[in-house]
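Quick board copy: two proteins, each given as sequence then C-alpha cells.
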Amino acid sequence: MSTTRTATVRDRRARAFARHYLEMVVAMVVGMIALAPVWSWVLERIGVTELFSRPDLAALVMATDMTIAMSVWMRFRGHGWAPIAEMAAAMYLPFIILFVPLWAGLISATTLMVAGHLLMLVAMAGAMLLRVHEYTHAHHHTHHAA
C-alpha cells in the first residue's frame, strides 16, 4: 500500500472516529434537553421535586438522559449492544467515582458536575479506543444481533 493511500485511509478512519464521537455528544445534549422537562414534570406530579436538590441524584438523572439518547442513536447507527453498554458505563462511572469525594465534603456540587462531564468525555474516548474498528468505519443503520 502506498504512503499516500495509507495516509488517506488513516485520515478517513480518524474522521469517522471523530464523527462518531461528535454524534454521540450531540445525542447526549439532545437527551438532556428533551428529557429534563419530562423528569421535572413526573417528579412534580408525584411531589418529590426536592430530589433534584441532591447533586448526586441530579447527576444520575442527567447521566440517564444522556445515556438514553446516546444509546438510541448508537443503535440506530447500527452499533451492537456491547459497545452501547460500554458507552453507557462511560456516562455513569465518572459521576459514581466522584460521589465519594462529594459525600466526604471534599468537592462541591459544581465540581461534581463539571468534573463528571469532563471525565465522561474522556471515558467515552476510552471506550471508543477499546473498539477502534467499531468507530472507524461507516455504519449503515443496520442492527447487529445481540
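And the next:
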Amino acid sequence: MALGTLVKSLQNIMRNDAGVNGDAQRIEQMTWLFFLKIYDAKEEEWEFHDDDYESVIPERLQWRNWAHDNKDGKALTGDGLLDFVNNDLFRTLSNLDLAPDAPLRQSIVKAAFTDANNYMKDGILLRQVVNTIDEAVDFTEYKERHAFGEIYETILKDLQSAGNAGEFYTPRAVTDFMAQMVAPRLGERVADFACGTGGFLTSALKLLDAQVETPDDRDTYSRSVYGVEKKQLPYLLCVTNMLLHDIESPEIYHDNSLEHDVRDWRHKKDGQFDVVLMNPPYGGSEKASVQSYFPAALRSSETADLFLALILYRLKRGGRAAVIIPDGFLFGQDAAKVEIKRRLVEEMNLHTVVRMPQSVFAPYTSITTNILFFDSTKKSEGVWFYRMDMPEGYKHFSKTKPISLKHFDAVKEWWVDRHEIEQDGNPKAKFYTPDELRAGGWNLDLCGYPHEEEVILLPDELIRDYKARRATLDAQIDARLAQICDILGIEA
C-alpha cells in the first residue's frame, strides 16, 4: 500500500465501527497501534545490539506475537481480539510494575497506555486495522521508518480539523523557521515544556542531525531534546515521533510543567536548558493552586503568561528562546503581563518580535500570534519589531493553502540586514529602545497590522445608519428571492 493512502484506509475501516466517534478518536486509535509496532521494531534493534536486553513488555503482548497475521487462521480476531486488547494488553501495560529508576525507554510504555483508549467495538474491524498497519511499513528498515514521516505529517495535519485536538499542531513551517533562527548546536539541550506532538523538537532534531559526524555525535544527538505534555493523545504522538527520529530513550514526560515550583529549577542540575522552543497553550485559565508555584509578581490565571514566566527560570545563562504568543500578551496591562515583559527587556535580552498574519493557525483558530525571540546573555539593548505580511496572491492561509517555509524568506533576509521599513505611512519594521518601551507602559503592540479608523456616530445617527443598511440588505435579498421564485415558477 502506498504510504500516502495508509491513513485514509485506516480511517475508512474505523468509520464502520460504532465505537469510534470522529477524527480525534480515529487518530488516537491509530496512534497507540503505531506506537506498539514502532516500539517493537526498536526492540528488535536493541535485542540485536544487546544480548542481555529484556523487554518491559510481556512476551505475549509484544506486537510480533499477537498482531502479526501468518494467514494460517490462528490470528486473534473478533471478540477474542477485543477481550485480549481491553482486558490484557491495556490493563497490563498501563499497570506495569516499574522500578523508580527504570530506563526512560521502559517508562514511556506505561505512560503511553496510562490514559489511552481502545475505542473500537468490532473485533473483526480491529483485526483489519491491525493487519493494514502491520503490512504497510517495516519499521526495522531505516528508509521505511523515515518514509513514515510522510504518514505522520498527515496524522498531525488531520489534528487541525479534529476539534480541540488541533491545539496540539503548530504548522511545520513555523516550527522550522523558529528552530532555524535559534540555531541549536550539537551538545546543547532543547526543551519544549508543552510539547504537544513534538513539532518543535523534531524541527530542532533535523538541524542537529545534520551536525552528526561520529558515533559519539550520534549519542549526543540522542540526548538533545526534552519535552513535557500533560494530555495523553499528543504525549503518545510525541513519544512515537521521537522513536521515529532515532531518540531511543525519549526524555518526554506525561506531566504538567506548571505544577512545580519554578524557583527550584535554578538549583537543579538538569533543570535548565540551552534552547527553548514553544507554542504555549493560550486562552486557558489556571487555578490558584497552580499559580502558587510562581512568585507573587508573576502569578496569572492565563496559561500562556505562566509558561513565559516558567521559561524565565528554565533558560540557561546564555540560552536562547523562541516562543509563540497571542496579541493579548503584547498589549495586556494586568500586573503579571507587565512584569513578564519588563523582565524580558530588563533582565533578559528580548531582541526581536515577529508579528505573524492572522490566519497562520487556520482553520483551528483565527487568533493573531507573534514570535518572541530572546536570550539570557544580557539585558536588552532594544527590540526590533517586524510585521510579516500575507504573501502575494494570498488573502489568508487555509487548510488547502497553508503557510510554508518560503513565506518566511523575507523575514530571514531582513533578519541578517535589519533596518526600519515603513509602508503606507505605517511602520513594518522598527527598533524601540528600552526607555521607549518603558515609557509606553511595556505595551509591545507595535508594528501591528493597520486598521481602518472606525467612525463614532452620535446615537441617533448610528440608529439611522443601521436602519438604512438594513433596508438596503432587505431590498437585495427580496430581489434575489424574486429571481429564484421566477425561475422556479412559484410565488415569492
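Board note added afterward: Residues 95 and 110 are 7 Å apart (CA to CA).
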